[in-house]
Structures are given as C-alpha cells and as structure tokens.
Design the sequence.
C-alpha cells in the first residue's frame, strides 16, 4: 500500500504565503505525475497544479504567477509554494500521485487533505 501525507496547511492572512508538502511512502517503484487539488465547501474539487516526473509543470489560471509546484524525487515529496494568498484560495488541499508499486500496478493515490484558510 502507498500513503500520501500532506503537511503545511493552516491559517494565513490575505497576501501571505504558505508552503505545502506531501510525502509518499510505501512499496513505491516509481512515481509519475504528482499534483495538488483543492476543494472548497459546496464546490467541485479542482486542479491547482501538477508536475511530471521530469519537472514539466501545469497550473490553473487562478494559481499561475502566484503558486509554484516542485518535487524532490529522492524524498518522494511534492511541494506547493503559495504566495499572495487570497480568501478565495481557502479550501482543503489534496495531493495526488500516479504511482507504480513493486507488484506492477499503476494507480492514483490521494492524501487525506490539509486545510488552508486565508482570512484576516
């Protein structure tokens, strides 16, 4: 089994910054794409940013220019640096990974989520 654990969420004032981390563990052979998603109450889960195994990135329009996604393959960890935060960024943030385990299976895995609240 594979586990993804997010950390770094919390309460921050508008205009502030926050860095989220997500570490994968378990019987991991290879991690392909990893991404960050968010879901606010009453809204659909949406992609914030994702990154390929070799560093190709993709951002939602709302995140581009403010957020930066990165990864450390040696640590099986993906990061999301969020700057200039707005109240509309308030949501539960989930990390996702397409992970190949040693039994030969390729599956999507999700973390438990971390709350980000942007408020004065």
Sequence:
């Amino acid at each position: 089994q594979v586990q993804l654990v997010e950390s770094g969420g919390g309460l921050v004032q508008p205009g502030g910054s926050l860095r989220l981390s997500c570490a994968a563990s378990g019987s991991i052979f290879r991690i392909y794409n990893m991404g960050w998603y968010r879901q606010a109450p009453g809204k659909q889960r949406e992609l914030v940013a994702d990154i390929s195994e070799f560093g190709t990135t993709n951002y939602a329009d709302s995140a581009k220019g403010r957020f930066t996604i990165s990864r450390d393959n040696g640590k099986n960890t993906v990061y999301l640096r969020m700057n200039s935060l707005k109240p509309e960024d308030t949501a539960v943030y989930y990390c996702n990974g397409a992970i190949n385990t040693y039994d030969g299976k390729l599956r999507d895995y999700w973390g438990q989520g971390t709350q980000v609240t942007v408020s004065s």
